[in-house]
C-alpha cells in the first residue's frame, strides 16, 4: 500500500530510516553484553550475522571474495568493496552477472562468491550462482525476498530485511545492501586486532545512520524538486565521482535514466581526461560528488577541470556539510549538502538526493514513476 504517498518509489525512499534500522536489528549490537570473555584480546562481538556465523572459518580460509550482481545491486557491491578489502585484507572483485556467465571465469573451491539481489530471482545472477556451485565455491546470498531462489540455493546468506520494494527503481534495497555488506565486512574482521579502532568508527556510524538519512530527506526534498524543474528539459546529464562516490555516480545515473529517460552517464572522475572532458561545455549539466575523504583533493582537481571547460552554469555539487573547500564554489555551482558520516557510509547519504532528483524529474516530465517503460521489477529471463 502506498498510504499517503503518490507513488511507491517515494514511499520507499522515505522508508529508508526504518529499512536501515530493520537491516541492522539484532546484527549491529548496541551494548557490549556479548563481550567475548575467553578472548585474550577482549574483542567485543559488536556485530552478529546469524546467517553466516556457522561458516566463518570457511570465509577465513578463502583466498578471495567475488561479488556477483546486476544493476543497482551491482552498484551496491561497488559501494562497499573498498571497506570489504580494507577490513578483510582479501582481494575483492565485482562481477556483472551477465559478463561473469559469458566468460565462465575460473572459480575455485577456495573462492567465496556473494550473490547480491533484491528479488533473489534475477536470471543472470541465478545462472552465475549455479555455475559457482558447480565449481564448488562457497556461495553466499545477500537477498531481500525471503524464500527466493537465490536465498534457497546459496550455501548461506543474509536477508536485507528492508521490507517489500514495489517500485521498479530500487531505492531502499540499495542502501540496505550497502550496509549489509559493510556489516559482513565487520563480521569477517571481528577478531582482527589491528582493525578494531576502524571497526568501532564504522560500527558507531552505522548506528547513527538512520537519523542522518531522515535529516537528509527532510532537508533536501524541496531543494531537489527545484533542481529537477531546472533540469527537466535537458537531454543529457553527466555524473562524476570517485573512491566511495564512484558507486553513487553510477547508481545516480541509473536512477535518472531508467525513470526520466534522460540520457545520463556515471563516470569515474579519474577518467575525465581520458575522453569525457570533450563532452563538457557550458550547456552540459554536470553532477559531481565531493566528499571529505581520501579522494577529496583529486575531486577538487576534477572540479577545477570541469569549471575551466565551461561546465559552470549547470554544475551541481553533492558535498558534505561543513566542507570549507566547497565554499569557494558557492556562487559558481548549486551546492547540495548532506550530513557527514564515516567515509565508507557517506555513499548511503549522497545517494538520497539522487533518488529524490530522479523521482522529481520523472514527475516533472509526466512519466510513470513506479513502472518505467520496458522495465520489470524482477528480470527473470536473460
Ligand atoms: O532483484 P535484483 O536486485 O537482482 O535486480 C537487479 C536489477 O535488475 C535491479 O537492481 C535494477 O537495476 C533496478 N530495478 C534499477 O533500479
Key descriptive features of the protein:
382 residues; alpha/beta; five-stranded parallel β-sheet; 44% helix; 14% strand; globular; binds 5-amino-5-deoxy-1-O-phosphono-D-mannitol; glutamine--fructose-6-phosphate transaminase (isomerizing); glutamine-fructose-6-phosphate transaminase (isomerizing) activity
Order of helices and strands: HHHHEHEHEHEHEHHEHEEHEEH
The helix fraction, in percent, is 40-55%
Count the helices. How many? 13
Sheet of most strands: 5 strands, parallel
**Terminal Cα span:** 30 Å
Radius of gyration over all CA atoms, rounded: 20 Å
Q: Bound compounds, please?
A: 5-amino-5-deoxy-1-O-phosphono-D-mannitol
Low-confidence runs: none
Overall 3D shape:
globular
Topology at a glance:
Blueprint: H1 8-14, H2 16-24, H3 50-53, H4 56-61, E1 64-69, H5 71-88, E2 92-96, H6 97-103, E3 111-117, H7 123-134, E4 138-143, H8 149-153, E5 156-159, H9 172-188, H10 196-231, E6 236-241, H11 246-260, E7 263-268, E8 286-289, H12 296-308, E9 315-320, E10 334-338, H13 346-364
Parallel strand pairs: 1-2, 1-3, 3-4, 4-5, 6-7, 6-8, 8-9, 9-10
Bound molecules: 5-amino-5-deoxy-1-O-phosphono-D-mannitol.
The site of 5-amino-5-deoxy-1-O-phosphono-D-mannitol has 16 residues, from α5 and α11.
Describe it.
The protein is of the alpha/beta class and 382 residues long. The protein has 13 helices and ten strands. The chain has helices at residues 8-14, 16-24, 50-53, 56-61, 71-88, 97-103, 123-134, 149-153, 172-188, 196-231, 246-260, 296-308, 346-364, and strands spanning 64-69, 92-96, 111-117, 138-143, 156-159, 236-241, 263-268, 286-289, 315-320, 334-338. The strands form two sheets. A five-stranded parallel sheet has the order 2-1-3-4-5, sandwiched between helices. The radius of gyration is 20 Å and the shape is globular. Bound molecules: 5-amino-5-deoxy-1-O-phosphono-D-mannitol. 5-amino-5-deoxy-1-O-phosphono-D-mannitol is lined by residues 70-73, 117-119, 122, 125, 168-170, 254, 258, 378-379. One of its GO terms (molecular function) is carbohydrate derivative binding. Its EC number is 2.6.1.16. This is glutamine--fructose-6-phosphate transaminase (isomerizing).
